[in-house]
Amino acid sequence: xxxxxxxxxxxxxxxxxxxxxxIEVKEALTEIEAAGLSNSGKEAGSGxxxxxxxxxAEGQRKRGKSQxxxxxxxxxxxxVSAQQARERKKVYLTELELMVKDLEKKNSELYNSLRHSxxxx
Length: 121
Description:
With about 120 residues, this protein is mainly alpha-helical. The protein has a domain at about 65-120. The protein is about 70% helix and about 0% strand. The radius of gyration is 28 Å and the shape is rod-shaped. Keywords: DNA-binding, Nucleus, Transcription, Transcription regulation.
């Protein structure tokens, strides 16, 4: 059963979009593994363990990142950014809730002071 309040909020789609994002990340990882890339992002067996300076000295260039690697990094950045945005929103809402409590208290105090004071005519 779906909560009516959550469905009307703009961030309520986070649940469905996060599962779609997880699927995309898994697909990107599968593509990286299928391309024969190691965890370090270098093609398996290429370069012969040479340093980038050695490769440049020999006239060889380091190969650019594959499309799958770029997609994986983009998805990872998006996940991190989304998490940071959720944390910022949580802090912001907590501050707003504190402000509401303070204003309600002040309003109540002002109302009581007016209610108990004599009205000058």
